[in-house]
């Protein structure tokens, strides 16, 4: 039986697009040790309990009840000699303990003689070094690690070297990411990847963080729209958006801004296509209800885009059996994806899964006409439109997390036409 990656990725994560990670390696600006803001130790304990419960459910019927989970934090990467890149914690590691420091290991081990999901959580962290902390900022050490995370035990990284062989000898099943082995002796048989991921449950803490993140992002977009009057360079708008996010409390962006200028003489045709994409998106949003799937909505999106392409005169005489192919040509991506702690961190979760209340997804149809597309009228070439919203699936109408970000043409035009005081 071959090793597989640790666990169903999306089921372990929850979205928080307001990044609040703080680099432990910050030269000359030491930052006190901390965990992810806004979440309690109880929340992380519940997440670990949920993970072990999933393992227990998957392992039922198999001999042995001894299980160990090993997760690595991200290491410190250096751009040159002693100058580190900005640190961003591994999402699986962060989700389960909230520890924001690099070069650490989380071990969840079942308790001998007790039934799952009973387990203990152990952290292995670098030993404190006052001379190094003078430059890189304070580290938690073993005492600080347990105090911050609520874990059961903490040890130095050096002690993990001795634990590795012991885990292999005493553990019936070891769960770890085989792409990033924590120890050279930990290569052992693991269970096959779970074939299907259960829908994520509702979480009030997650919902609050999502709303804060989306409001912050929407405000930054509005300020950037306001500053986008020509002449303006793309680099300025990139910096403006990042500044507005950071000024409102974000430490890093969830994704790099994509700022693209183009031919202003095509404004009229750009508006026509923008309105067409907006209508497609509105229709897709009405389909985001429990029981349907992203694939179902994707099929509907392609049908609607095919109709719009014909109405706009971008393509003519679309045959019914060829409509999907034509639509995929001008919208080469899916209608949406699941949202986790990062924007695209759930690539292995099938989009065929029925949506359930509490799941967070995107709705992002688009139409893109390449400049060299000889099949499309010249006036439409070189124009691209995509409109995206982040959505929480509910029993009733979907909750649009990004509702504060204007997308109606009149609202956008009004913002962009305001004079700078």
Automatic annotation (TrEMBL):
Keywords of the record: Hydrolase, Manganese, Metal-binding
Claim: tRNA-binding is one of the keywords in the record: no
GO biological process: proteolysis
Superkingdom, taxonomy of origin: Eukaryota
GO cellular component: mitochondrion
Catalysed reactions, as listed in the record: Release of any N-terminal amino acid, including proline, that is linked to proline, even from a dipeptide or tripeptide
Residues of the Aminopeptidase P N-terminal domain: 39-185
Key word Phosphoprotein present: no
Entry's Gene Ontology molecular function annotations: manganese ion binding; metalloaminopeptidase activity
Enzyme category, top tier: hydrolase
E.C. designation(s): 3.4.11.9
Listed cofactors: Mn(2+)
PANTHER family: XAA-PRO AMINOPEPTIDASE 3
Family label: Belongs to the peptidase M24B family.
Protein's recorded name: Xaa-Pro aminopeptidase
């Amino acid at each position: 039986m071959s090793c597989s990656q640790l666990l169903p990725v999306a089921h372990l994560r929850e979205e928080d697009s307001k990044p609040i990670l703080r680099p432990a390696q910050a030269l000359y600006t030491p930052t006190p040790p901390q965990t992810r803001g806004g979440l309690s130790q109880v929340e992380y304990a519940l997440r670990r309990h949920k993970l072990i419960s999933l393992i227990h459910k998957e392992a039922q019927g198999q001999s042995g009840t001894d299980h160990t989970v090993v997760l690595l934090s991200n290491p410190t990467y250096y751009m040159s000699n002693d100058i580190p890149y900005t640190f961003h914690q591994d999402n699986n590691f962060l989700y389960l303990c909230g520890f924001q420091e690099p070069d650490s290991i989380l071990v969840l081990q079942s308790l001998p003689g007790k039934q799952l999901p009973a387990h203990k959580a152990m952290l292995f962290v670098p030993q404190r070094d006052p001379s190094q902390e003078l430059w890189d900022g304070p580290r938690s050490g073993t005492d600080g690690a347990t105090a911050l995370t609520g874990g059961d035990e903490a040890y130095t990284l050096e002690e993990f070297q001795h634990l590795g062989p012991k885990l292999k000898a005493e553990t019936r099943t070891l769960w770890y990411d085989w792409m990033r082995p924590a120890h050279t002796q930990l290569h052992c048989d693991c269970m096959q990847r779970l074939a299907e991921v259960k829908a994520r449950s509702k979480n009030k803490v997650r919902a609050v963080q999502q709303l804060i993140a989306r409001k912050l992002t929407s405000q930054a977009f509005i300020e950037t729209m306001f500053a986008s009057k020509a002449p303006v360079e793309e680099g300025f708008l990139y910096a403006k958006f990042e500044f507005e996010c950071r000024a409102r409390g974000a430490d890093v962006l969830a994704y790099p801004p994509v700022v693209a200028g183009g031919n202003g003489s095509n404004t009229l045709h750009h508006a026509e296509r923008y309105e067409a994409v907006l209508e497609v998106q509105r229709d897709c949003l009405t389909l985001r209800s429990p029981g349907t799937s992203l694939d179902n909505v994707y099929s509907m999106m392609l049908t609607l885009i095919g109709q719009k392409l014909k109405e706009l005169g971008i393509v003519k005489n679309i045959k019914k059996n060829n409509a999907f192919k034509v639509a995929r040509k001008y919208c080469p991506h899916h209608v949406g994806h699941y949202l986790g702690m990062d924007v695209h961190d759930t690539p292995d979760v099938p989009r065929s899964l029925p949506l359930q209340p509490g799941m967070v997804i995107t709705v992002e149809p688009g139409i893109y006409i390449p400049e060299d597309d000889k099949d499309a009228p010249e006036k439409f070439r070189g124009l691209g439109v995509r409109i995206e919203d982040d959505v929480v699936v509910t029993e009733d109408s979907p909750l649009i997390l990004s509702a504060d970000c204007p997308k109606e043409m009149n609202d956008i035009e009004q913002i962009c036409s305001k004079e700078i005081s």
